[in-house]
Fold DUF2007 domain-containing protein.
Amino acid sequence: MGLMKVFSGSEILALALKEKIEAIGVDVLLKDNIQSARLAGFGSLSAAVELFIQETDFAKANPVIEEFRLNI
């Protein structure tokens, strides 16, 4: 079992999607590349924030993710 990236983008959108996924009982890992780069003393050109879930939770979370993507 591994992690699957389900979102890359702005912190505001990532936090909104994280809340929706967690509301259905799926744990979400948030990776903040901007904060990590800032703390290391350099900037980041990659996606600002990434969300990951367990691959085994994808079937449960996918309808929420797809609805979110259609509404952004």
Remarks:
- The longest strand covers residues 3-9.
